[in-house]
Every structure is written in structure tokens, then in C-alpha cells.
Request: fold
Amino acid sequence: MAIAHDQRAEEWPGLSGCRAVITGAGGGIGRAIAQGFARAGAVTLALLDRDEAVAAETAKEIAGPSTLTLACDVADPASVAAAAVRVEAELGPADVLVNNAGLLRPGPLATLPLSEWNALIGTNLTGYFLCAQEFGRPMLARGRGALVHIASIAASHPQGFSGAYSVSKAGVVMLSRQLAIEWGESGIRSNVVSPALVRTPMSEAFYRVPAVAERRAAMVPLKRVAGPADIAEVVLFLASPRAGYVNGEEILVDGGFSRVLMDLVPRPGFDRAEHTNR
Reply:
């Protein structure tokens, strides 16, 4: 179903007329980001994904902007360069790049094959660097633009037995900070959105395990697991002129999940149940 145009949504973020490039645009968060830009009045959207067919599915759900769907392996320099040439030729230079493409593969570090390590680093970190270079070049030439990178709560809270995932996401945060200081004087902002628990096609297998959805929601102060749209809204803010003085920052979008660590420590007399049941 096509997205209805919402004039009020267009007015607030100030993204009307912008040109955005979104990697991993066929996935849950990438698709929600694309939908958000469409609602906000973007004039063009370049939807990149390793699987062009799923990017095309995203395009079908969007009404308003001109869209270009491209197969792009962000870990392949030639693939990224070719995509950048086509985007600029057909849609014009991008105002916003959203680095969202990512992999998640389990594996203990003690026995992790180098090929698995390189695959995650290549997509989750090197891919972000390559896209920033290629799509950032016209931004640097024009003296304006915004980069938003999707990292993870795993960037600061290591997730065991997940191979290079946490390492790659920590690298994304530092990459963004370095871009922020190197490109800031040229009018380019670089920021990170780090989701925590989000129900997406990539994580859906976890939620098919009985009671996992309920247990995960119970751990979050807001008592629900995020959806892709929750992440997209923060991406839109960071991409917009409303965040024009936000640069080199990471916004953790977790519903307060990262603040409950001390609640996991047994403390007789301070347990939540002892107070809520009185």
C-alpha cells in the first residue's frame, strides 16, 4: 500500500526536497527509513541493497519521491563506486547518506574463521567507510550534507558469541566521530543511531522462540520491543536541519534498556516487586 503524503510530517523535519541514499534499504529498518523520508517530502531516494529485488519491494510501498533501486554490495569498492555514479547521474548528488546495510552472524571468537570475521567487518564497517567516501564526495564539493550510520547497542555492550558484530559496530561509532571532525569544517555532519532490541526480519528468528518476545519486552522500561519505525524517526531527526548543530554524536534508541543494569543485581528490600505490591 502506498504511503499517504502527510503535510504536517513534511513541515517538521525540514527534509522536503532532499535527496537521500539508503543502504540495506530492503530490510526492516532500511525500509522504515525510506518510508520516513518519503513522508517527510524527500524528492529522490536511492535504495541500495545487495538484493535489488527486496529494495524494489521497498520502492513499491513508497509514494512521492523518485526512486532508484540498485543492487550494491557495500563491501565491494567497485560495486559502491558504480552505484554512486548511477545515483548522481540519475538523481543528482545526495544530501543525506544513511549507512544501514549490515550482517549478523553467530560465532565464538576462539574458533571464528577469518573469513567470517572479514565478512562482518567488510559489510558492517568497511562498507560504511566506502559509502561515506563515494557518496560524501559530492557533499564535500558542495559544502553541505548529512551522514547517519546505524550501529547498535552492541557497540558499547559487547555481545558474546556474535563473531565480529560488536567490534564492527564499535568501529562504526568511531568512524562517524572521525568523519565528524574531518568533514565538519566542510559542512558535513556525521552521527550514529544505535538501536537495542528491535524486531526486524534479521532478528525475527529470535522472537519465534516461545516467550522470547515477552521476556525481551519485560526487560525494557517502556515494556515493548522497538519496531523499525522507532529507529527511523531518530534517523530522520539527525538527517534534518533540526539537528544542524549535532555532529559526532551517538543516540542510543533502546527504550531505556541500557539503564536497567543495576536492577539485575539482587538487593533485598529494594526489589521492584516489594514496592509495587504494597
